[in-house]
Amino acid sequence: MKLNEKQLAMVDAQIKRLIKTDSYYGKMYRDAGIDGVSSQEDFEKLPFSSKADLRYAYPLGIQAVPDEEVVRIHSSSGTTGKPVIIPYTAKDVDDWSLMIARCYEMAGITDKDRIQITAGYGLWTAGIGFQAGCEKLGAMAIPMGPGNTDKQLQMMVDLKSTVLTATSSYALLLSEEINKRNMRDKIYLKKGIFGSERWSDKMRNYIKTELGVEIYDIYGLTEIYGPGIGISCAEDDGMHYWDDYVYIEIIDPKTEKPVPDGVEGEVVITTLVKEGAPLLRFRTHDISRIIPEPCKCGSHYPRLDTVKGRSDDMFKVHGVNMFPSQVEEILGMVDGVSSEYNINIAHDESINRDVILVTVEAEGRVSFDKTGDTIRELFKSKLSVTPKITVVPVGTLPRTEKKAKRVIDHRE
Protein backbone atom coordinates (compact mmCIF):
# COMPACT_ATOMS: atom_id res chain seq x y z
CA MET A 1 0.00 0.00 0.00
CA LYS A 2 1.63 3.20 -1.17
CA LEU A 3 1.40 6.60 0.50
CA ASN A 4 -1.43 8.70 -0.83
CA GLU A 5 -0.84 12.39 -1.65
CA LYS A 6 -2.08 13.58 1.74
CA GLN A 7 0.11 11.11 3.64
CA LEU A 8 3.13 12.00 1.52
CA ALA A 9 2.62 15.69 2.34
CA MET A 10 2.39 14.78 6.04
CA VAL A 11 5.69 12.86 5.93
CA ASP A 12 7.34 15.75 4.07
CA ALA A 13 6.11 18.15 6.75
CA GLN A 14 7.45 15.89 9.50
CA ILE A 15 10.91 15.84 7.91
CA LYS A 16 10.97 19.60 7.35
CA ARG A 17 10.01 20.13 10.99
CA LEU A 18 12.55 17.60 12.30
CA ILE A 19 15.55 19.06 10.43
CA LYS A 20 14.93 22.40 12.14
CA THR A 21 15.54 20.76 15.54
CA ASP A 22 18.61 19.46 17.32
CA SER A 23 16.90 16.15 17.99
CA TYR A 24 18.60 12.84 17.22
CA TYR A 25 16.63 12.37 13.99
CA GLY A 26 16.88 16.02 13.03
CA LYS A 27 20.68 15.76 13.05
CA MET A 28 20.57 12.37 11.29
CA TYR A 29 18.47 13.69 8.39
CA ARG A 30 20.53 16.89 8.07
CA ASP A 31 23.77 14.88 7.99
CA ALA A 32 22.29 12.59 5.34
CA GLY A 33 21.19 15.55 3.22
CA ILE A 34 17.50 14.63 3.58
CA ASP A 35 15.26 17.69 3.33
CA GLY A 36 11.89 16.17 2.41
CA VAL A 37 10.06 13.65 0.22
CA SER A 38 7.98 14.13 -2.92
CA SER A 39 7.39 10.53 -4.04
CA GLN A 40 7.09 6.94 -2.81
CA GLU A 41 10.62 6.35 -4.11
CA ASP A 42 11.94 9.23 -1.97
CA PHE A 43 10.12 7.81 1.05
CA GLU A 44 11.56 4.32 0.58
CA LYS A 45 15.08 5.79 0.54
CA LEU A 46 14.60 7.16 4.06
CA PRO A 47 16.63 5.30 6.70
CA PHE A 48 14.78 3.04 9.10
CA SER A 49 14.45 4.00 12.75
CA SER A 50 14.75 1.44 15.53
CA LYS A 51 14.54 0.87 19.26
CA ALA A 52 18.37 0.88 19.29
CA ASP A 53 18.24 4.54 18.11
CA LEU A 54 15.87 5.42 20.93
CA ARG A 55 18.09 3.82 23.54
CA TYR A 56 21.15 5.55 22.08
CA ALA A 57 19.32 8.89 22.29
CA TYR A 58 18.28 8.27 25.94
CA PRO A 59 16.77 10.01 27.78
CA LEU A 60 15.16 12.68 25.56
CA GLY A 61 17.36 12.89 22.49
CA ILE A 62 14.44 12.17 20.17
CA GLN A 63 12.37 15.04 21.58
CA ALA A 64 11.44 17.29 18.64
CA VAL A 65 9.68 20.13 20.51
CA PRO A 66 10.74 22.59 23.24
CA ASP A 67 10.41 21.39 26.86
CA GLU A 68 7.45 23.65 27.51
CA GLU A 69 5.41 21.76 24.90
CA VAL A 70 5.97 18.34 26.51
CA VAL A 71 3.12 17.42 28.85
CA ARG A 72 3.94 13.77 29.55
CA ILE A 73 6.48 11.01 29.01
CA HIS A 74 5.95 7.26 28.71
CA SER A 75 8.36 4.34 28.68
CA SER A 76 8.02 0.95 27.03
CA SER A 77 7.65 -2.25 29.05
CA GLY A 78 9.90 -5.29 29.10
CA THR A 79 13.08 -3.62 27.87
CA THR A 80 16.65 -4.46 28.84
CA GLY A 81 19.40 -1.94 29.32
CA LYS A 82 18.44 1.69 28.91
CA PRO A 83 14.66 2.23 28.77
CA VAL A 84 12.96 3.88 25.82
CA ILE A 85 11.41 7.22 26.80
CA ILE A 86 8.84 8.90 24.57
CA PRO A 87 7.74 12.54 25.10
CA TYR A 88 4.16 13.58 24.25
CA THR A 89 2.70 17.02 23.52
CA ALA A 90 -0.87 17.96 24.47
CA LYS A 91 -1.90 17.30 20.85
CA ASP A 92 -0.22 13.87 20.91
CA VAL A 93 -2.16 12.94 24.05
CA ASP A 94 -5.43 14.17 22.51
CA ASP A 95 -4.78 12.42 19.19
CA TRP A 96 -4.05 9.18 21.02
CA SER A 97 -7.23 9.40 23.12
CA LEU A 98 -9.22 10.01 19.91
CA MET A 99 -7.69 6.88 18.36
CA ILE A 100 -8.61 4.74 21.37
CA ALA A 101 -12.13 6.21 21.38
CA ARG A 102 -12.31 5.16 17.71
CA CYS A 103 -11.24 1.66 18.75
CA TYR A 104 -14.03 1.46 21.30
CA GLU A 105 -16.53 2.65 18.67
CA MET A 106 -15.24 0.07 16.17
CA ALA A 107 -15.98 -2.58 18.83
CA GLY A 108 -19.53 -1.27 19.22
CA ILE A 109 -18.87 0.28 22.63
CA THR A 110 -20.88 3.39 23.56
CA ASP A 111 -21.12 5.99 26.30
CA LYS A 112 -23.52 3.66 28.12
CA ASP A 113 -20.76 1.08 28.71
CA ARG A 114 -18.68 0.56 31.84
CA ILE A 115 -15.07 -0.22 30.96
CA GLN A 116 -12.92 -2.08 33.52
CA ILE A 117 -9.27 -1.26 32.82
CA THR A 118 -6.81 -3.84 34.17
CA ALA A 119 -3.71 -2.74 32.23
CA GLY A 120 -0.79 -1.11 34.04
CA TYR A 121 -0.64 2.60 34.84
CA GLY A 122 2.45 4.75 35.41
CA LEU A 123 5.17 4.87 32.76
CA TRP A 124 3.48 2.13 30.76
CA THR A 125 1.07 3.45 28.11
CA ALA A 126 -1.81 1.00 28.32
CA GLY A 127 -3.76 1.94 31.47
CA ILE A 128 -3.84 5.70 31.00
CA GLY A 129 -4.46 5.30 27.27
CA PHE A 130 -7.48 3.03 27.73
CA GLN A 131 -8.81 5.48 30.33
CA ALA A 132 -8.33 8.61 28.20
CA GLY A 133 -10.10 6.97 25.26
CA CYS A 134 -12.93 5.84 27.53
CA GLU A 135 -13.41 9.36 28.84
CA LYS A 136 -13.22 10.79 25.30
CA LEU A 137 -16.01 8.38 24.31
CA GLY A 138 -18.02 9.33 27.40
CA ALA A 139 -18.17 5.82 28.86
CA MET A 140 -17.58 5.03 32.55
CA ALA A 141 -13.95 4.21 33.27
CA ILE A 142 -13.22 1.75 36.10
CA PRO A 143 -9.42 2.25 36.40
CA MET A 144 -8.43 -0.86 38.38
CA GLY A 145 -4.93 -1.38 37.04
CA PRO A 146 -3.38 -4.87 37.22
CA GLY A 147 -3.57 -7.41 40.03
CA ASN A 148 -5.73 -7.87 43.15
CA THR A 149 -7.99 -10.37 41.43
CA ASP A 150 -10.47 -10.53 44.34
CA LYS A 151 -11.03 -6.78 44.06
CA GLN A 152 -11.24 -6.99 40.27
CA LEU A 153 -14.02 -9.56 40.48
CA GLN A 154 -15.85 -7.63 43.21
CA MET A 155 -15.87 -4.45 41.11
CA MET A 156 -16.79 -6.43 37.99
CA VAL A 157 -19.90 -7.73 39.77
CA ASP A 158 -20.85 -4.69 41.88
CA LEU A 159 -20.30 -2.08 39.16
CA LYS A 160 -21.70 -4.33 36.41
CA SER A 161 -18.72 -3.81 34.10
CA THR A 162 -19.67 -4.44 30.47
CA VAL A 163 -16.21 -4.20 28.87
CA LEU A 164 -12.87 -5.64 30.02
CA THR A 165 -9.51 -4.34 28.78
CA ALA A 166 -6.53 -6.54 29.62
CA THR A 167 -3.57 -8.52 28.38
CA SER A 168 -4.74 -11.90 27.10
CA SER A 169 -2.78 -13.55 29.95
CA TYR A 170 -4.70 -11.65 32.61
CA ALA A 171 -7.99 -12.20 30.78
CA LEU A 172 -7.23 -15.94 30.97
CA LEU A 173 -6.53 -15.71 34.71
CA LEU A 174 -9.80 -13.84 35.32
CA SER A 175 -11.71 -16.33 33.14
CA GLU A 176 -10.37 -19.25 35.16
CA GLU A 177 -11.17 -17.56 38.47
CA ILE A 178 -14.75 -16.79 37.36
CA ASN A 179 -15.09 -20.43 36.34
CA LYS A 180 -13.68 -21.74 39.68
CA ARG A 181 -15.94 -19.47 41.72
CA ASN A 182 -19.07 -20.20 39.66
CA MET A 183 -19.52 -16.45 39.05
CA ARG A 184 -20.50 -16.57 35.39
CA ASP A 185 -24.15 -15.67 36.10
CA LYS A 186 -23.05 -12.71 38.25
CA ILE A 187 -21.02 -10.82 35.64
CA TYR A 188 -22.33 -8.47 32.94
CA LEU A 189 -19.36 -8.43 30.55
CA LYS A 190 -20.25 -8.22 26.86
CA LYS A 191 -16.95 -7.34 25.20
CA GLY A 192 -13.23 -7.84 25.81
CA ILE A 193 -10.45 -5.72 24.32
CA PHE A 194 -7.12 -7.48 24.64
CA GLY A 195 -3.63 -6.59 23.48
CA SER A 196 0.12 -6.30 24.16
CA GLU A 197 0.93 -9.96 23.38
CA ARG A 198 0.04 -12.57 20.77
CA TRP A 199 -2.27 -15.38 21.86
CA SER A 200 -3.32 -18.72 20.48
CA ASP A 201 -6.73 -19.63 19.05
CA LYS A 202 -7.13 -22.08 21.92
CA MET A 203 -6.66 -19.32 24.53
CA ARG A 204 -8.92 -17.00 22.55
CA ASN A 205 -11.74 -19.55 22.42
CA TYR A 206 -11.44 -20.38 26.12
CA ILE A 207 -11.67 -16.72 27.17
CA LYS A 208 -14.51 -16.06 24.73
CA THR A 209 -16.49 -19.02 26.08
CA GLU A 210 -15.77 -18.62 29.80
CA LEU A 211 -16.33 -14.85 29.90
CA GLY A 212 -19.15 -14.96 27.36
CA VAL A 213 -17.75 -11.94 25.50
CA GLU A 214 -17.06 -10.72 21.99
CA ILE A 215 -13.28 -10.42 21.64
CA TYR A 216 -11.37 -7.59 19.93
CA ASP A 217 -7.62 -7.41 19.26
CA ILE A 218 -6.15 -3.96 19.84
CA TYR A 219 -2.78 -2.96 18.38
CA GLY A 220 -0.14 -0.40 19.26
CA LEU A 221 3.24 0.17 20.83
CA THR A 222 4.65 2.80 23.16
CA GLU A 223 7.14 4.10 20.61
CA ILE A 224 4.30 5.06 18.26
CA TYR A 225 1.59 6.19 20.73
CA GLY A 226 0.54 3.16 22.74
CA PRO A 227 -2.40 0.78 22.27
CA GLY A 228 -5.09 2.10 19.98
CA ILE A 229 -3.55 2.67 16.55
CA GLY A 230 -5.68 -0.24 15.31
CA ILE A 231 -8.34 -2.76 16.36
CA SER A 232 -10.29 -5.68 14.93
CA CYS A 233 -13.95 -5.22 14.00
CA ALA A 234 -16.98 -7.50 14.40
CA GLU A 235 -15.84 -9.46 11.33
CA ASP A 236 -12.75 -10.56 13.35
CA ASP A 237 -10.59 -10.60 10.22
CA GLY A 238 -7.53 -8.46 10.84
CA MET A 239 -7.22 -5.06 12.53
CA HIS A 240 -8.28 -1.73 11.01
CA TYR A 241 -5.62 0.93 11.59
CA TRP A 242 -5.98 4.70 11.50
CA ASP A 243 -4.17 5.74 8.33
CA ASP A 244 -4.73 9.43 9.03
CA TYR A 245 -2.34 9.07 12.00
CA VAL A 246 0.04 6.28 10.92
CA TYR A 247 1.33 4.82 7.66
CA ILE A 248 2.15 1.10 7.74
CA GLU A 249 4.38 -0.73 5.30
CA ILE A 250 5.53 -4.36 5.37
CA ILE A 251 9.16 -5.18 4.57
CA ASP A 252 11.17 -8.33 4.09
CA PRO A 253 13.27 -8.28 7.30
CA LYS A 254 16.29 -9.73 5.45
CA THR A 255 16.36 -7.58 2.31
CA GLU A 256 14.69 -4.57 4.06
CA LYS A 257 12.66 -4.00 0.88
CA PRO A 258 8.88 -3.44 0.94
CA VAL A 259 6.78 -6.47 -0.03
CA PRO A 260 3.44 -6.42 -1.91
CA ASP A 261 0.17 -6.17 0.01
CA GLY A 262 -0.89 -9.61 1.22
CA VAL A 263 2.69 -10.84 1.70
CA GLU A 264 3.88 -11.47 5.25
CA GLY A 265 6.86 -9.57 6.64
CA GLU A 266 7.92 -7.08 9.30
CA VAL A 267 5.60 -4.21 10.23
CA VAL A 268 7.20 -0.76 9.76
CA ILE A 269 5.29 2.29 11.04
CA THR A 270 5.57 6.00 10.24
CA THR A 271 3.82 8.57 12.42
CA LEU A 272 2.13 11.22 10.26
CA VAL A 273 1.24 13.96 12.73
CA LYS A 274 3.06 13.13 15.97
CA GLU A 275 4.80 16.15 17.51
CA GLY A 276 6.79 15.15 20.59
CA ALA A 277 8.73 12.27 19.07
CA PRO A 278 7.93 11.67 15.38
CA LEU A 279 9.20 8.36 14.03
CA LEU A 280 9.67 7.63 10.34
CA ARG A 281 9.93 4.02 9.14
CA PHE A 282 10.13 2.54 12.65
CA ARG A 283 10.91 -1.19 12.60
CA THR A 284 8.57 -2.91 15.05
CA HIS A 285 9.80 -6.52 14.55
CA ASP A 286 6.12 -7.56 14.54
CA ILE A 287 5.31 -10.12 11.82
CA SER A 288 2.10 -9.54 9.87
CA ARG A 289 0.75 -8.51 6.46
CA ILE A 290 -1.52 -5.87 4.93
CA ILE A 291 -4.88 -7.40 4.01
CA PRO A 292 -5.57 -5.95 0.54
CA GLU A 293 -9.27 -6.86 0.22
CA PRO A 294 -11.96 -4.46 1.55
CA CYS A 295 -13.49 -5.53 4.87
CA LYS A 296 -17.06 -6.85 4.93
CA CYS A 297 -17.79 -4.44 7.79
CA GLY A 298 -17.69 -1.57 5.29
CA SER A 299 -14.98 0.47 7.04
CA HIS A 300 -12.65 2.35 4.68
CA TYR A 301 -9.72 2.04 7.09
CA PRO A 302 -7.05 -0.42 5.86
CA ARG A 303 -6.33 -3.66 7.70
CA LEU A 304 -3.30 -5.30 9.25
CA ASP A 305 -3.56 -9.04 9.79
CA THR A 306 -3.34 -10.47 13.31
CA VAL A 307 0.29 -10.24 14.46
CA LYS A 308 1.85 -13.73 14.17
CA GLY A 309 4.71 -12.95 16.52
CA ARG A 310 7.94 -11.00 16.53
CA SER A 311 11.03 -11.61 14.45
CA ASP A 312 13.06 -11.38 17.68
CA ASP A 313 10.84 -14.05 19.35
CA MET A 314 12.57 -16.69 17.23
CA PHE A 315 14.59 -19.32 19.05
CA LYS A 316 16.97 -21.85 17.55
CA VAL A 317 17.48 -25.46 18.65
CA HIS A 318 19.52 -28.06 16.74
CA GLY A 319 19.86 -25.59 13.89
CA VAL A 320 16.07 -25.22 13.53
CA ASN A 321 14.47 -21.78 13.74
CA MET A 322 11.20 -21.83 15.71
CA PHE A 323 8.57 -19.32 16.82
CA PRO A 324 6.09 -19.54 19.73
CA SER A 325 3.27 -19.32 17.15
CA GLN A 326 4.41 -22.66 15.66
CA VAL A 327 4.33 -24.26 19.10
CA GLU A 328 0.82 -22.89 19.68
CA GLU A 329 -0.31 -24.26 16.32
CA ILE A 330 0.90 -27.75 17.29
CA LEU A 331 -0.76 -27.64 20.72
CA GLY A 332 -3.99 -26.49 19.07
CA MET A 333 -4.11 -29.83 17.22
CA VAL A 334 -4.11 -31.91 20.40
CA ASP A 335 -7.35 -32.74 22.20
CA GLY A 336 -7.53 -31.84 25.88
CA VAL A 337 -4.46 -29.57 25.88
CA SER A 338 -4.93 -26.03 27.27
CA SER A 339 -3.46 -22.85 25.80
CA GLU A 340 -0.81 -22.61 28.51
CA TYR A 341 2.73 -23.88 27.99
CA ASN A 342 6.34 -22.98 28.55
CA ILE A 343 9.58 -23.96 26.90
CA ASN A 344 12.95 -24.34 28.61
CA ILE A 345 16.06 -24.64 26.45
CA ALA A 346 19.46 -25.60 27.86
CA HIS A 347 22.78 -27.05 26.75
CA ASP A 348 23.70 -30.49 28.13
CA GLU A 349 27.48 -30.39 28.49
CA SER A 350 27.72 -34.18 29.01
CA ILE A 351 26.49 -34.85 25.47
CA ASN A 352 27.38 -31.42 24.04
CA ARG A 353 23.84 -30.99 22.78
CA ASP A 354 20.99 -28.52 23.25
CA VAL A 355 17.91 -29.93 24.95
CA ILE A 356 14.38 -28.54 24.80
CA LEU A 357 11.74 -29.21 27.45
CA VAL A 358 8.13 -28.35 26.64
CA THR A 359 5.69 -28.26 29.55
CA VAL A 360 1.99 -28.24 28.66
CA GLU A 361 -1.27 -28.45 30.57
CA ALA A 362 -3.98 -31.02 29.81
CA GLU A 363 -7.43 -31.83 31.10
CA GLY A 364 -7.82 -34.79 33.45
CA ARG A 365 -10.05 -36.67 30.97
CA VAL A 366 -7.11 -37.43 28.64
CA SER A 367 -4.11 -39.71 29.12
CA PHE A 368 -1.09 -37.57 29.93
CA ASP A 369 1.30 -40.22 28.54
CA LYS A 370 -0.52 -40.51 25.21
CA THR A 371 -0.91 -36.71 25.00
CA GLY A 372 2.84 -36.28 25.54
CA ASP A 373 3.61 -38.86 22.83
CA THR A 374 1.25 -37.10 20.39
CA ILE A 375 2.86 -33.70 21.00
CA ARG A 376 6.37 -35.14 20.65
CA GLU A 377 5.52 -36.74 17.30
CA LEU A 378 3.96 -33.50 16.02
CA PHE A 379 7.11 -31.56 16.94
CA LYS A 380 9.20 -34.19 15.17
CA SER A 381 7.12 -34.22 11.98
CA LYS A 382 6.44 -30.49 11.71
CA LEU A 383 9.57 -28.86 13.18
CA SER A 384 12.19 -31.65 12.90
CA VAL A 385 12.90 -31.35 16.62
CA THR A 386 12.19 -33.99 19.29
CA PRO A 387 11.67 -32.26 22.65
CA LYS A 388 11.13 -33.71 26.09
CA ILE A 389 7.46 -33.27 26.93
CA THR A 390 6.00 -32.85 30.41
CA VAL A 391 2.23 -32.88 30.72
CA VAL A 392 0.72 -31.38 33.88
CA PRO A 393 -2.87 -30.74 35.07
CA VAL A 394 -4.67 -27.56 33.95
CA GLY A 395 -3.86 -24.71 36.34
CA THR A 396 -0.35 -25.93 37.19
CA LEU A 397 1.65 -23.39 35.18
CA PRO A 398 1.84 -19.86 36.62
CA ARG A 399 -0.64 -17.23 35.43
CA THR A 400 0.30 -13.60 35.09
CA GLU A 401 -1.29 -10.17 35.22
CA LYS A 402 1.14 -8.96 32.56
CA LYS A 403 2.65 -10.60 29.48
CA ALA A 404 3.35 -14.33 29.71
CA LYS A 405 6.99 -15.41 29.23
CA ARG A 406 6.77 -18.57 27.16
CA VAL A 407 10.39 -19.32 26.27
CA ILE A 408 13.21 -19.43 28.81
CA ASP A 409 16.62 -19.93 27.18
CA HIS A 410 19.18 -21.01 29.78
CA ARG A 411 21.95 -21.01 27.15
CA GLU A 412 22.11 -17.20 27.15
Features:
nine-stranded mixed beta sheet, alpha/beta, phosphoprotein, GMP Synthetase, Chain A, domain 3, single chain, 2 domains, 412 residues, Rossmann fold, four-stranded antiparallel beta sheet
Commentary on this structure:
With 412 residues, this protein is of the alpha/beta class. The chain has helices at residues 5-18, 24-31, 40-44, 51-56, 90-106, 126-137, 149-158, 168-180, 201-211, 324-331, 368-383, and strands spanning 70-75, 85-89, 114-117, 140-143, 163-167, 191-195, 214-221, 226-232, 239-241, 246-251, 265-271, 282-288, 290-291, 303-304, 309-310, 315-317, 320-322, 337-348, 353-362, 388-393, 407-409. Helices cover 29% and strands 27% of the residues. The protein has a nine-stranded mixed β-sheet with strand order 4-3-5-6-7-8-9-14-13. Strands 10-11-12-15 form a four-stranded antiparallel β-sheet, with no helix packed on it. Strands 20-19-18-21 form a four-stranded mixed β-sheet. Strand 3, helix 6 and strand 4 form a beta-alpha-beta unit. Helix 5 packs across helix 6 (126-137), helix 8 (168-180) crosses helix 9 (201-211) and helix 10 crosses helix 11 (368-383). The chain starts with a helix and ends with a strand.
